[in-house]
Amino acid sequence: MGTTQLESVPEPKYWHLKTVLSEALDSEFSVGEILPNERDLAARFGVARATLRQALEQLELEGRLQRRRGVGTTVAPPRVGVDVGTEQPDWPGSADDAWQPVDAVRSVPPAAVAAALETGAGDPVHIVRRSRTSHGRLVATELLYVPDPSVPDLTAIDAPSGPARARAVLRELQRRELDGQDRAVELGSARADDAKDLGRLPGSPVLVVTTRFFAGGRTAALSVATYRADTCRLTFGDSPGVEIHPGPERRAS
């Protein structure tokens, strides 16, 4: 099988235009400013409108632009810094936790989650759904999977469904001594449910943060948090603001 030399593969015209447009956004436009219409932009850069649309769509996916019905295409604000790690690990629902409980149900988790939790196939677990906002914007949703052995006294609590039930699960989980946790971050695509909650189209890029919480020598809970890749950057504890996005650094205006 032959090999492909990347140097011989021409850069798509829309991708080159995206780079040029991105530089123009940094030097000529301010946050919230409305861009000229497609006809004027295509004429300025000497490209077909189809090529321009591809470049604009890519910049929108990367969070550089926002398209608002009745307004037009505007320059998006910089990504919001979201802290996803601390020096001292703690259970979900602690006093300084930025997540808000939405609901809790008891259901069978995906097979991969069941394997991580070491629960039997088909065994239901508590699934807590939470959301996270920053600067008034919804930036992430989370599914927290908690097996029955991690919250043995939960059945004695008379909590209704909804946020109250979610808080009850979190409260019981915090009664246990936390041994530690590990965390992984990967780029993914928004599933239908996540996309609806986050106001994005299915398949839009997201950052998925998976956290395992350990207690009693086993995985006591598993969190899968989905962050909007176009509006936030993830930081870890006291480290500097490390930006996770493919676009160039944006200058504040």
How would you describe what is shown here?
By secondary structure, the protein is an alpha+beta fold. It has two domains: 6-75, Arc Repressor Mutant, subunit A, CATH 1.10.10.10; 80-235, Chorismate lyase-like (Chorismate lyase, 3-Layer(aba) Sandwich). Helix content is 25%, strand content 30%. It contains six helices and ten strands; from the N terminus they run αααββββαββαβαβββ. The strands form three sheets. It has a six-stranded antiparallel beta sheet with strand order 4-5-6-9-8-7, sandwiched between helices. A two-stranded antiparallel ribbon has the order 1-2. A hairpin with a 3-residue loop joins strand 1 (65-68) and strand 2 (72-75). Helix 2 crosses helix 3 (49-61). The chain is elongated. The model is unreliable at 1-9 and 240-253 (pLDDT under 50).
Secondary structure layout:
Blueprint (H helix, E strand, L loop, with lengths): L12 H16 L9 H8 L3 H13 L3 E4 L3 E4 L4 E4 L16 E8 L3 H7 L7 E10 L2 E10 L16 H11 L6 E10 L2 H7 L6 E11 L2 E11 L3 E4 L18
Parallel strand pairs: 3-10
Antiparallel strand pairs: 1-2, 4-5, 5-6, 6-9, 7-8, 8-9
In short:
With 253 residues, this protein is α+β, with helices and mostly antiparallel strands.
On the 0 to 100 scale, the average pLDDT is 82
Which spans have pLDDT < 50 for at least 5 consecutive residues? 1-9, 240-253
- How many strands in all? 10
Total domain units: 2
Shape designation: elongated
Which CATH architecture of the largest domain would you pick? 3-Layer(aba) Sandwich
Structural features:
2 domains; Chorismate lyase; two-stranded antiparallel sheet; six-stranded antiparallel sheet; disordered N terminus; alpha+beta; 253 residues; disordered C terminus
